[in-house]
Amino acid sequence: MSKPAVSPLKDRSTRSAHEVIASPEFKALVSKRWKVSLVLLTLLFVSYYGFILLVATNKTLVNTKIGEVTTLAIPLGLAAIVIAFVLTAFYVAWANKSYDPEVERIRSQLR
Amino acid sequence: MTSIGAIQALLLTQAAPAAAGESMQTSLGSPSMMSILFFFMIVAVTLVITYWAARKTKTSSEFYAAGRSVSALQNGFALAGDYMSAASFLGISGMVALKGYDGMIYATGWLVGWPALMFLVAEPLRNLGKFTFADVVAFRLKQKPVRIAAAIGGILTVLFYTIAQMVGSGALIQLMFGLKYEYAELIVGVVMLAYVLFGGMLATTWVQIIKAGLLLFGVSLLTVLVLAKFNFNPGNLYAAVVEKYGQTALEPGGIVASPIEAVSLGLALMFGLLGLPHILMRFYTVPDAKAARKSVLYATGLIGYFYVIIPIVGFGAAVLTPGGRKFISGIDGGGNMAAPLVAELLGGTAFLGFIAAVAFATILAVVAGLTLAGASAYSHDIYVNVIKGGKATEEEQVKAAKIATIVFGVVAVGLGILFKGQNVAFMVGLAFAIAASANFPALLMSIVWKRFTTWGAVWSILVGAISSCAMIVLSKTVWVDVFKFEHAIFPMKNPAIFSMTAAFAVGIIASLLTPEREAQEMFEDEKLRTYLGVGAE
User: Fold this and answer.
1) Are B370 and B165 in contact (CB under 8 A)?
2) Is residue B55 part of a domain?
3) Which residues of A touch B524 (CB under 8 A)?
4) Which phi and psi (to 5°) does residue B385 adopt?
5) Residue B430 lies inside a defined structural domain of this protein
6) pLDDT, tens digit, for every residue of B272-322?
7) Region label for B2, one of left (φ > 0), alpha (ψ between -120 and 50) or beta (otherwise)
8) DSSP state of B489
9) DSSP letter at B91?
């Protein structure tokens, strides 16, 4: 792409703040952001509160030995921490890949 | 907050003589050359940084937000340094040493707030605010009432957290260095004030980065030394734990006796993080929302790693220390000295000195962050935006910030000395409950709900703050343990599940009853800024 630097700006239709807010792209961006957030938050809830409720209510299961003495409760606790990190990493990967370019695109249309 | 009971127990049992029978010689409590040397090295390095930072700290944006020049990685380390307190380092390893698996359950709760912080508030907060979380809540609402309410929520949170830190730190330093409690308070106060007053957020950031690095290094080394005794196989360590204390050491016990109590504690820990002013303030130090997002990931990684390895230190202390649990709890009832003891055992006096100095640095970094947050809630929210109506010159703003910093520092030392020997275990719990119930609901609703109003915010914050305080005072933790009444009026220890729900409900009802057209109209501007960063500071 060896277009002169000014031409994309001229070609692009610029919009007022109000038009951007009313645009379907912006609405889709906002709703996608919260959809991703809420799905990840739900997974966090299921893993963490699931873990807490499991150790609180099903002692026989979590006390099952998976090694010589190691109980299932130990890897479960570690998994709660690792899952929390993985969900955070997933959000960052998604936002860097999908959210930021779309934000850039919509922002550049703003008058 | 059960393990914070550690601090209380610690206050009641000042360096008791070693338990009878099997025991080890420890130089804990007598100031060793090594610990003093390491301590002075840390203080010297951080003061040099403060001197450098002071020259770059002139404007209010530099004082509160380090000129928004902190990188994502630096902020990740600083967030970790701001969050990992002496209570989590010494308290959780002690809890694992004395109670086994329950300490691990507790450790998980301290991490899970970070993803929630990322999904719900980190980026909007960075885009909407300037210096405090009240900037976000008051963005499209009437400034004065909202600022006052948010400052009350913010200051209460910071104040209770600070008292717990100061009282705990005085006792810890006494235990490790043999230094008199009052002197310990004064040293913490003076050094911390030097950082904040002269170097502002930039110096505070670097103190927190250095502290996080030292703490992670120290705990990693401790973990490797412990695992080396077990052929680097955690299974062997667990086997040794079971041999000494029985299979129950690896099974969940009392901490999750009541599921609703456990969930309520989890809610307070998770959403309390989203309302801690000293943590939220750190997001204004990075250049944009993208950097804010990355810094949460770094912080989550560092803190997660810390909580994964800290139980190994606790289990190691229980098994390796001659005299075991009995000896550890003989020195300090809450087990706080488990990590320092195993450090001395495996790495000698030098390593103990290093760990003790790191614990001291940990306290300094956390208290500096709290002081900056407390000062900004007064000087930025109350003085500049309420008293001066938002029209203060740069000079007036910086002056107000510095005066508020001094006042907050003096108050912190004063309260630390005043509460000497008192049961302050409930105060960390109180800080998290208020943060989750007063600050977080208003913050979230102001970001996502168009019809949120001034009075919705004010009532939500006040109901959240008052109900969480009242329920904790009426619970066993304060009513029975502090006031010595026979029965608790409120049956649970952790009220967040009720007080947070109440704050949301009141915020919604009050907003629907007092529609505010201006606030609804401004929601469009707010959205542009929240999601696109248009007009962000």
Assistant:
1) yes
2) no
3) 17-18, 21
4) -90, -25
5) no
6) 999 999 999 999 999 999 999 999 999 999 999 999 999 999 999 999 999
7) alpha
8) S
9) I
Q: Considering only CA atoms, which of B345, B354, B349, B478 is closest in space to residue B423?
A: B478
Terminus-to-terminus CA distance in chain A, angstroms?
Answer: 25
Residue of A nearest to B525 (CA): A17
* Residues β-bridged to residue A15: A110
Lookup result for tokens 């003790």: B356
CATH number where B163 lies: 1.20.1730.10
| Residue owning tokens 């499991």 | A54
- Pull the structure tokens for residue B358: 């790191």
A46 CB within 8 Å of a chain B CB = no
Residue A42's Cα: distance from chain center in Å? 11
Read off φ and ψ for residue B430, nearest 5 degrees.
-65, -45
Among B79, B88, B119, B230, the strongest candidate for a mutation testing the A interface, having the largest count of A CBs within 10 A, is B119
- For chain B, the domain total comes to 1
Q: Which domain holds residue B297?
A: 2-46+68-425
Cβ contact (<8 Å) for A69 and B247? Answer: yes
CB–CB of B304 and A34 under 8 A?
no
Cβ–Cβ gap A53/B531 under 8 Å: no
Q: Measured in whole angstroms, how far is the alpha carbon of residue A14 from the centre of its chain?
A: 30
Whether B218 is in a domain gets the answer: yes
Interface predicted TM-score (ipTM) of this complex, two decimals: 0.90
Contacts of B257 in chain A (CB under 8 A): 56
Is A41's Cβ below 8 Å from some Cβ in B? yes
pTM of the model: 0.91
| Alpha-carbon distance values, B211 to A22, B77, B215 (Å) | 47, 9, 6
Report the b/e string of A26-43 with b at 16+ CB within 10 A: beebbeebeebbeebbeb
B167 vs B250: CA distance, rounded Å: 32
In the stretch 53-72 of chain A, residues with CB closer than 8 A to chain B read 53, 55-57, 59, 62-63, 67-71
- Burial zone of A68 (CB within 10 Å; 0-12 exposed, 13-18 middle, 19+ buried): exposed
Q: Please tell me the distance in Å from A33's CA to the nearest CA on chain B.
A: 9
On whether residue B504 sits in a domain, the answer given is: no
Over residues B77-88, the pLDDT tens digits come to: 999 999 998 777
- Ranges of each domain in chain A: 22-93
